[in-house]
User: Fold these one by one.
Assistant:
Number 1:
Amino acid sequence: MHDHDHTHDAHASIMEENASSNFAKRALAIQSLLIEKGVVTADEVRRAIEVMDSRTPALGAKVVARAWVDPAFKARLLTDAKAACAELGIDTGTLATLVAIENTATVHNVVVCTLCSCYPRAILGLPPDWYKSLNYRSRVVKDPRSILKEFGLELEQDIEIRVYDSTADMRYLVIPVRPPGAEGMSEVALASLVTRDSMIGVTKAQTPGKQRVPSAAEERPG
Amino acid sequence: MSARFKLGDRVRVRVGSLPGHFRTPSYIQGKTGTVVAVHGEFRNPESLAYGGDGLPKKFLYLVCFAQSHVWGQYCAPSKDTLFMDLYEHWLEPGQEAGETHARS
């Protein structure tokens, strides 16, 4: 039910480990045993990695852009995010439950998993290293304004910051506020304003005309 | 099974530790919050973690806490909040008297 293939202890030191760590060796040993015993095949392992690597923040950006231009879709996204993603042809089958949370003029949401690294991988891909770091996980829950400032985001004091600690079966996707100046833009152009970090909630969507050039990987069709 | 708590209920997170896997962070134990969503029934991760079937399923709730209540020294505006998913067996009826800071 969880998309966990690890122990929580493994994450505490994830920033410090390298490819030849004991954890990596253990994973390889388990993998070779499972293949040897016929539980999985090497091709299935390869395919699972291939599917995982095909997931990128472009999928989430597509969902957010649609929500910005289509209020009825946004309402469905907020009610049942998995079904809304399916409307756009995005399969979130590996996610237990996806929940979309909306930023507004008065509320800013930011997501963390203090226990490990729960993350909506089916629509954002693999989490960034900082998301799994002890620094982010321990600090964002008790001092979100300070850590957001380090990310370059200073929020007004009258904005309520809601920290979501995803401890269970829900995977949270932040719908950032549609930025000023983006009124007449096409859905595809809007999606280019929606970055990974804005869907975690550590920044806002990019302002039109100021966005960086997307990399080739992010432009891969979903 | 029906859910023990409903939207708007005040709930207190139980204090405790299990010898194995559980998903209630220690920093939220003993704190009181408000149920803002009833997610439904889910398999119990304390069983699933050891190859169990996770049954009986447990109701899962989204609970909202005032940051000024969770952290005694929270220095930002009092309206900031923390949202966490918690399983029913970790919750008990909340006691307003146990709170040192009321929600604004």
Number 2:
Amino acid sequence: MELVQATKRAIGKATRDAFGEALRELGHRYPNLVVIDGDVNNSTRTEWFAKEFPDRFINVGIAESNLVGIAGGLAGCGKIPVIASFACFMMCNAFDQLRMSVAFPHLNVKVCGSHSGISIGEDGPSQMGIEDVALAMALPGFTVLVPADEVETREVVKAALEHQGPVYIRTGRPPVPIVYTDGCDFQIGRANRLRDGNDVTLIANGLMVAAALDAADLLARGGIQARVLDMASVRPLDEEAVVAAAQETRGIVVAEEHLRWGGLGSAVAMAAAEHAPCRMRFVALEGYAESGKPEELLEKYGLTARHIAQAAREVLA
Amino acid sequence: MATNLSSSDLTTLRETARRLRRYIIEMTTAAGSGHPSSSLSAIDIMTALYFGGILRYDPQRPDWPDRDRFILSKGHAAPALYAVLAEAGYFPVEQLMTLRRIGSPLEGHPNMRRLPGVEASTGSLGQGLSIGIGHAFAGRMDGRTYRVYVMLGDGECDEGQVWEAAMCARHYRLGNLTAIVDHNKAQQSGLVKDVMNHMPLAEKWRVFGWHVQEIDGHDMRQILDALAVARGVTDGPSVIVAHTIKGKGVSFVEADWTFHGRALSPEQAKRALEELGWS
């Protein structure tokens, strides 16, 4: 598979691969863990859990609504269902089931949407989940997590299983740069500061974290010191980190591989508006993309380090 | 397979159902809204389940892992569910009169987080059978012997998710799952045959591979016999298509499908209770 973008960082595994590995590993620790997939188990990587624990895996066929309802029933019996499909099918097709059979009764279901964003590439817009975070944010009580790389994904899956209550985990298809070369201390509701700086703050999640770090390198060449926050936890949001960024730097750029409405940008903007209004820019998608190579799409639709750096300069202008 | 209930047991059950019909009418009229007619079509079956020796449950332990499950997928028949739960002792009968009032756990549609004995929060139609499949899978995985009963409406069978679930339950041969369709022939805006004609309904379940029984859903003997037969079906899911009458027991409600989602006025309620022998 093509690398998602030019970077000097080492390319690691896809976050979906790390999710699948973590699930298989955690299956030993959690005897109540049950995995359900909608016949994309070889894409979401739940097939690795399925091979190890065939008695705790259910393939319901291409039927996301039924999938989510079953998860609600299993959770009602004390199981910890982890359910997976493409982000678009899981969140868009089964939204009412997530609302009614999971969120409203606040059941302990972990939802994974893989193939998020436009970096899935050639399969095109029908398979691209670009609304999924906004939909997850519209489900009261849901924790919403968007890990940056394979290392953080493993920690995110662990944290999701330890957490009591519904969680949405967003994973991606292509291999992505490794951000956490020295391990990752992930906590729900806490941002990780990956780079210090007091001129401007770059807040990102998913594969845009690596792009934000690259953008900080670009900005440093021009004498601008950018703080970089990995905001994998979209909800609960680390509001303190946002307020500190708003007060200690001259503005915030939020970058995400998602629509600009309802995702990380909206969450950060709400926190800033309430507690510490500041200059902001949003690097995100405006609409549906097209088929193409992942790196071509990220370039064409404005999701590269260069775009983030340009937005930062606008904040500082 | 016949049940071993005596004729006096059946008389007691019919008397219980007559009392629960009264509760349904009284609580919905007091609330000024609700779905009395959808509750009246379902109440004989629910009476048989809870008081005819079918369901294994303990109101003192609503979370007892080995309890049988009853999931009311047609959540708008909540008054019927509340009536049987109160009668069974999950909460005081007096609480029924708080139906739909602010602060009351007896919400317009069932909320599992607020009322003991409610197995699933329902009201968005089409979801209960999938939830029941989840309970059935959990029972199988844990080696428990409980059975899962899900009641659906016939209008609810318009929902595609019902048929996703029907395929799934058969594919995995969930022999601990029984669906009951309250086939009252009417839905919100008209008769099922006019709104979305999915007759013959029993035939559809049959071709989906389910064990199918068709009964008169107001004949207590037929209901109990069918539930006994269903309990003996363990190699796959079974469904009871229960032919019922929306508003059963109250002549002017039976004759008028527009009572869906409408409570009886105090005067109508008085007439209805007289018809049921409560005066």
